[in-house]
Amino acid sequence: MATGGLLALLDDIATVLDDVSAMTKVAAKKTAGVLGDDLALNAEQVSGVRADRELPVVWAVAKGSFVNKLILVPLALLIGYFIPWLITPLLMIGGAYLCYEGVEKLAHKFLHRDAESDHQEQLPHALIDKNADLLALEKDKIKDAIRTDFVLSAEIIVIALGTVKDASFATQTAVVSAIALLMTVGVYGLVAGIVKLDDGGLALIRSTAQSVWGRIKRSLGYTILWFAPNFMKILSIVGTLAMFLVGGGILLHGLPHAHAIVHQAGEIVGPWPLVGGLLKNLVSPFLGLMLGLIAGMTVLIAVTLLQRIKGS
Hints:
The chain is mainly alpha-helical.
């Protein structure tokens, strides 16, 4: 009897772990879009720091991110347990904010290029100026990065909680905690690698060996130095696109009758020759992208009007 009870307990534990693993994979896929944006933003915010201070700054932001998760995860789980109906509105708010942030980034880039250029020039000047307070500069960058991380972490956790809202509280706790931990370690591990790419390239270029291996190392170093800034640009573009896809997708699936609209649109383009199957799979992302752009512009206009009213 005791052996049978132990085997039954082990079987139950294995089943729970299997459910947690499967749900964690689903949650990870749904939060991957926000992860791209989180990665791009944090890599951008750490850039401009002295080379010998890059990793300490990344570590400081990572510690702040862990503190954010310690606040957000219990709060999200309490909401899911006591007021689960609030999860969908929070998801919609998070989706709208993502879309707004994406449009705001585009507007700032294309409508305020002079201001962006001045901002980019400030950091090199501060680094050259011996009288500049580099410690204060680092602290400001760390605070900004942790504040940004708090918003993005909240979105990741709410999205993860939304994927397991029908599961047991224990499963919710395990999945959301796993996502929070994996995202933090993954994001800041990658950020640390990205900000040190150029240093790795310089180290390879400085190789003085005249052997074939030495020439390969120098060629690889030049390639890395070319790749690093272009990778940052690509990462920024992908992160902005992910804002609209993820935010718009959340809004689309939260709207009444959205599933029927997506299904009907898919039925219209599905029979088209050659490209019908591809277009049918792209209907939902495309509609989410369009809705994300519209929602982001609407929120940006509302925020701008409120700021002007407040300023006047």
